Amino acid sequence: MRRLVVSMNITLNGFMAGPNGELDWHEPYWDEEMGTIITQQLGDADTLLIGRNTYECMAPYWQAQHSDISAPRETMDFADMMNRYEKVIFSKTLKSVSWHNARLAKRPLGKEIKALKASQGKDMMVYGSGELVTQLIRLNLVDKYLIWIYPVAIKTGRPLFKSRLNIVPYKTKAFKNGVVLMYCKTKMSS
Amino acid sequence: MRKLKLQMQVSLDGFVAGPDNEMDWMTLDWDDKLKEYVQEITEPVDTIILGRVLAEGFIPVWKERAADPAADAFTHKMVDAPKVVFTQTLTENPWGNTTLATGDIVKEINNLKSQLGGDIMAYGGATFASALIKHNLIDEYHLFVNPVAIGKGKSIYGSLEANLPLKLVKATAFECGITVLCYHPA
Prior knowledge:
By secondary structure, chain A is α/β, with parallel strands linked by helices. Chain A is built from 5 helices and 11 strands, in the order ββαβααββαβαβββββ. In chain A, the strands form 2 sheets. An 8-stranded mixed beta sheet of chain A has the order 5-4-3-6-1-7-11-10. A two-stranded antiparallel ribbon of chain A has the order 2-9.
C-alpha cells in the first residue's frame, strides 16, 4: 500500500509558520546538504497532495524554476519532479487548476486518500499545506512524518499539531546547519 | 565562569506541560543509554536552581525518594546538592539546603555563575525557564523531546521578544522514544 508522507518544517516550539504565515525563521538554513536529502525523499514519491494556499504559492514558483536553465542540477531534479509528478489539489473554492499533471480532488478527503492509497504507485508527499495536514491527521491518514526541527524558537505562530498525537521516531539525522530531521511513523502503521 | 544547563522534558511540539500542568504525555520508561546521558550531564553539576512552583514539588519528592535505602546516587544528589529557589512571593524559606533568590533574575544568575564551583542545573518549571530563556542566561540546553505532540500547553518560549536562534551541539535518539536535542546559544 502506498504511504502518505507529511514533510514539515517546524520551530523548536512546534510552529510551521509565524502568526501571519512568516517563514523568515527558516530561510537562513536552506543548504545543499538538506537539498540532497529532500530530493532523495521526493524521489521515493510520485504524487504530491497539496492544499489550496500552498498550491497558489507552489504552482507559479516551480513552473518558473522549470524554465530556468541556469538553475543548479539539484534544484533542477527537484523542480522536474515537482512539475512532472501527479498533483492532487484539495480546495473547496478553486474551480480549476493549471499546473502540469495537477487535478482538483473531487471526492471528500477521506475517500480521495483511500482511493489513492489503494491505487498503484510510490509514496504520496505533502509539503506545507497546514490546513490539509490538520485534516489528514484528524482522519488518521498519515503514515509517516518527516519532521524538520529548526534550531530556532519563535514567540508565536501556526502550530503543526492541534491535538494530541503519539508518534514513533525511528531515525534521526542532524544537519551541519543545526536542523534535526526526525523520521517518524504513526502508531497505527508501526 | 560556571555553566548554566537547562534539562527539560518537552513534547514534540515544544510544550513542557499540558494547559493544566498535565505531565501524562511523558515517557517515563527510560532506557539505559538515556540514563547514562543524564548521569553524564549531571555529574559536573553542584548546584540546582528551581522556580518556586517546581521547587514545591521537586524538593519534598526527592527527599522522600532519598529516604528509600535503595535510592541511587542520582537521587541523593538531587537532595544533597545545594539549591537556589527563585521566588517573588516567598519570604520565609521552608526548605533545608536551599537559599531563596528574590532579586533580579539576571543579577542573581550572573552572581551564581561568577562564583567558584561546578555546573548549575535548571529543571524548570515553565515560568522560571521562560525567564531564563528570555534573558538568554542558559549556556547549554538539553531538551528531552518526547514522542508525542500535545497540541496545547505551557511553553518556555512565550516570553521571547524576538526569534531565538540556537546552535545545535548534538541530537541523540534513544530507544525509549525520547530524542535529546542539545543546543548552545547561537
